[in-house]
Hints:
The chain is α+β, with helices and mostly antiparallel strands. It is 44% helix and 10% strand. It has 18 helices and twelve strands. Strands 1-2-8-5-3 form a five-stranded mixed β-sheet, covered by helices on one side. It binds protoporphyrin IX containing FE.
Amino acid sequence: MVSDSGQRTGDGDGTATVDVGGGESSERERRRNVEELPLPPYPPNLGPPQLHFLRQMRDPFGFIERAAERQDVIRVRMPSQGDIYGLGHPDHVKRVLLTEREKFRKSEDFRIAFGEGLLTVEGDEWQQQRDVLQPLFTRESVMGYADGMVDQIRRRTQRWQDGEQLVLQQAFRDMALDVLFATVLGRELELDGDERIREAAESLNEWFRPTSYVLPQWLPTPARWRFKRGKKRIRAEADRLLAERSGDTPTDPTEADDLLSLLVGLREAGVTDSAMLSDERLRDQMVTIIFAGHDTSATTLTFAFWALANNPDVRERFHAEVDALDGPPTVDDVAALDVTERVVTETLRLFPPVYMLPRETTTDVAFDGYRIPEDEVVNLAIREIQRDERFFDDPETFRPSRWDGDLRGELPDFAYAPFGGGPRICIGREFALLEAQLVLATIGREYDLYWLGENEDGEPPVDPQITTRMPEGEEFLVTER
Ligand code: HEM
């Protein structure tokens, strides 16, 4: 991507929207100026806007790459939705997620899908939910889950056979769901059972099939029907867990170590009197955590093993590190798993599961001298930015050692944002990072996993749904080390 020159006016603290020569112009004056700005042009190398959707369907990442070749603010046409805008510079991400976040809201689509859980609510309600849930997700709290995570991981890996072929995305989805349930949700799933829950969890992604971008919300489609059925099942499971917790919560609810015990405990203790503790909200919260917290992890793990399989030198260093452990990793080993941590960091750079972060504008806003009108969808191009040679050397190469020095400190803010940023940064970040390290170390000590597909361009196959993942059915060979 080459930045367009001259017009960029993003300033360090992000307080000004655009400098159109107004100096100390009043807010009204500035707004009027914004309204006078041109809309971003459709990138000329994408062909006629009527074909944007088809071209994007055929090759989503190539489409975005081409669109962003010459400009950091793009406009593409989507049938039934009108235009959507893409932002491809860390300064833009910073403005949207942090310094000018009041000019953007979460997209309506998420709220329709997930109701009033943490991912979707806004304003005071969001702050209240975040304050209540945050203690469960601090580094210290999630470290308390570490050994339980390893138990869940090993329950599955101990059944793997040398020479077996595994659909890794699916295997990790099952594993991530086991881990999430056994820790945050406080119930151990059956290894060969609980299929209804597993299916239901998987179907939460169905809401975001690409057809959703073209078909109106009210139209029933098979994918939407699967989504609704899945959501209903998870809500029923939430009711079952709620009934189990009622009357059986710790005296001090803040000592609860799972989500529902915490929330039910607060309600029973009368500590927090709020709508967020109603059964309805608790159901929404459970659906939200399951949606946000398992497929993202499964995807990260799948791409991490793909990358290890394709980079023997990295794999060697990774093996040296995990082989030095006395046994399966424990909570005390985590701090020493440096190479493993960097493998995860680099995987999240090259293959961020949330490759695009959507928002909607609440007012006209200006980026690089262009206007994005009120009530429009903007997508933050996280994957593009994390592969941009302006910020990363040799950006397409998987090189965990790039993080050995102080790259994080040297990067512009928001050039690396796989978990989003600002106040709404992923609440599950510490959880996900710990889980990924432990899965890699547990498996890496015992097995090598080799992707069995063809690798023409040095990139894994991807199926960009709401998260980027490997297409269903991609198999890996399990070999004992
Ligand atoms: C590698 C794994 C993960 C990735 C890449 C990831 C990514 C993200 C991103 C990019 C956001 C910001 C969304 C936005 O600003 O619109 C987010 C938010 C969120 N994530 Fe994660 N996530 C991961 C794992 C998890 C886990 C394990 C959980 C729960 C156990 C979780 C729960 C949430 C929740 C509840 C939010 C909303 C936070 C808020 O708005 O306050 N995530 N995640």
